[in-house]
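Worked example

This section walks through a single chain of length 94. The input is the sequence exactly as stored; nothing has been trimmed or padded.
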Amino acid sequence: MSSDHVARRKFLIRNKLGLHARPAALFVRTANRFQCEITVQKGKETINGKSIMGVMTLAAGPGSRVTVTARGVDAKKAIEEIEALIADNFGEQK
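Given that input, the structure is written out below as tokens.
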């Protein structure tokens, strides 16, 4: 796969409760709209970003730093949409 089909970005989780059930579901729903593999890394742990169980077990609380990597034809668009979701604090207040 060529490098133009890989996108990676680091994010700070800023919403009040972090990636709890509702934001995790929104993250997974967004990730599943794209034709690419999406992984989320926090520290040494890397999970499938399209798996609700994976995202929930990541335990990314407020202030957590995560790296999201997308590989596939929709990689750039997937990262842009995930960035918008995180920037909007998953629709929650900080």
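What to look for: The beta strands are 6-12, 36-42, 45-48, 65-72.
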